[in-house]
Structure formats: structure tokens, C-alpha cells
Amino acid sequence: MTLAPLAPPQPTQSSASTDRAGVWRWVLIAALLIYIFIPIVGLLRFSTRAANGISFQFYRDAFADPSFYSFLGNSLLAALWTIAITLTLTTFTLYWAYLKARWLLPLLEMLSLLPFVVPAVTLGIGLIQVFTTPPLALTGTPQLLIGAYVIVTLPFAYRAVENSLQGANVLTLTEAAESLGASWWRIFLEVILPCVWSGVISGGLLVFSFVFGEFTLALFLVGSSYQTFPLYIQQLYSYQPQYSVVMSLLSFLATWLAAWLLVLLTRRKN
User: Fold this and answer.
1) Which of 211, 209, 168 is nearest to 191 (CA)?
2) What's the pLDDT at 145?
3) Which of 12, 16, 93, 260 is the most buried (most CB within 10 A)?
4) Where are the domains positioned within the chain?
5) Among the CATH numbers 1.10.260.40, 3.40.50.2300, 1.10.3720.10, 1.10.560.10, which is that of 65-269?
6) How confident is residue 10, by pLDDT bands cut at 50, 70 and 90?
């Protein structure tokens, strides 16, 4: 008796659906990369355009310009201070609320969303009205600008840290550490902070990205008295468009490098 050859197995409906989902995922990733990099390629071509072809003279001038380092340092300093203040306040407050006052969490979440409701222009004008007259004459100072940045970056830091705290059983960890005689500060620094470190780093990255490229509040609150990097780029654009594009690309590169370093720091901690 001759046996009929076995038919090849037919792909099931679930495997076909998985294949289609994989194709669409790669299509979306490719579309996202094109959406991100096409403007960058356009800026790069514009910044290197010269009468005789391609020139990188503007890039050499940028690194030789003392103003570049001065204004870049102003933005970096504002970003680092904002990260330190925002993440410290957010982490301490949320940890305390999880331990002592969970009924405050809905209120804290609502307060953290308020900066999204208030436009930057409105916030800037309001702060000018409050901090113009003595003894609170802070308009034009970096302290007021950093304070405003703390307010507007609160939602980014809050959401990142709160998500990490939700994943960690902070109450059980705290009680266990207390039963072993650990002090509150030691519990926070050696037990809780490592558990939420990825959220802290993610929040810091979001805060840095926002502050480093923020323009409206800097224009209203400090103007020419403490020029940040975006204000410097805006001034250059009025009389040297190619040079301002070079500065914009270098700003993007600095933000990307900061993100890369923070990701490496998160992986080492984990």
C-alpha cells in the first residue's frame, strides 16, 4: 500500500496575524525615523551649503566662539539645578505620601497636572507681576527662571517617579528596614532610591530635554540678563541663519548625548 505524501503544514491564523503585526511595527518604526531625521538632514544640508559646494566653516566658528560655551553653560546650569530641585521635591513628597498619607495622592496628581493647563506665556507674565517689586525683585535673575522651570517640569518628574513607586512595595520595604534598625535617611538612600532609580533617571531626562530647549519663559523672565542657548540661537537667526542652524544642531547633539549618558547610568544601576 502506497502512502500519500503528507501535506505541508499550513500557517495558522494566529501566526499570520503575528507576521502582519511585525510588518506593521517595522513600517511604523521606519516612518518614525524618517519623520525625525528628514528635518535634521535638511538642517545639515543648509548649514553646510556654500558657493563652492560644501563647507564646515560655521561648525569650526561655533567651537571657536566664546559665546557658544557661555550660553551653553547657562542652559546646562539651569537644567541641572532644575533636575536636582524637581526630582528631590517629587521623590521625597511621593515617598512620604505613600507611607503616611495615601489619601493625598489624588490631590498631588491633580496639582502635578496644573502646569499643563497654564500656558508658558501666562505663567511668565504672572511671575513678572509678582517678582518685580521689592522685596521679591527677582525678575531677570536665573533663580526666578529655575523656579519657573521647576513648576513647568513637575508633571514630567512626577509621572516618572510615581510609576516607579507603584512598582515597588515601599511600605513593606520600609517596615522591613525599620525592623532591622535602619534610620529614615538610610532607608531612603539605600533601599527606596535604588528601587525607583530608573524613574528618577527618566524624569531627569525629560526635565533636561525641556529646559535645554525652552524659549518662552527664558525670553519673558530673564531676557538679555541671563541668556540661555535658545535665546542665543534666536538672536543669531536674525542676521546669520546658517550659523543659528549650526547652533540648533549642536543643541540637538548635546541633548542626545545627555540622554545616552542617562540611559547608560540607568543600566549600570540596574
Assistant:
1) 168
2) 93
3) 93
4) 18-49, 65-269
5) 1.10.3720.10
6) low
pLDDT value at 3 more than 70: no
The answer, yes or no, to whether residue 269 has pLDDT greater than 60, is no
3-class secondary structure for the chain?
A: CCCCCCCCCCCCHHHHHHHHHHHHHHHHHHHHHHHHHHHHHHHHHHHCEECCEECCHHHHHHHHCHHHHHHHHHHHHHHHHHHHHHHHHHHHHHHHHHHHCHHHHHHHHHHHHHHHHCCHHHHHHHHHHHCCCCCCCCCCCHHHHHHHHHHHCHHHHHHHHHHHHHHCCHHHHHHHHHHCCCCHHHHHHHHHHHHCHHHHHHHHHHHHHHHHHCCHHHHHHCCCCCCCHHHHHHHHHCCCHHHHHHHHHHHHHHHHHHHHHHHHHHHHHC
pLDDT more than 70, % of the chain: 90
pTM of the predicted model as reported, rounded to 2 decimal places:
0.81
Write down the pLDDT at residue 149.
94
- Find residue 53's DSSP bridge partners: 50
Taking only Cα atoms into account, the Rg of the chain, rounded to an integer number of angstroms, comes to 25
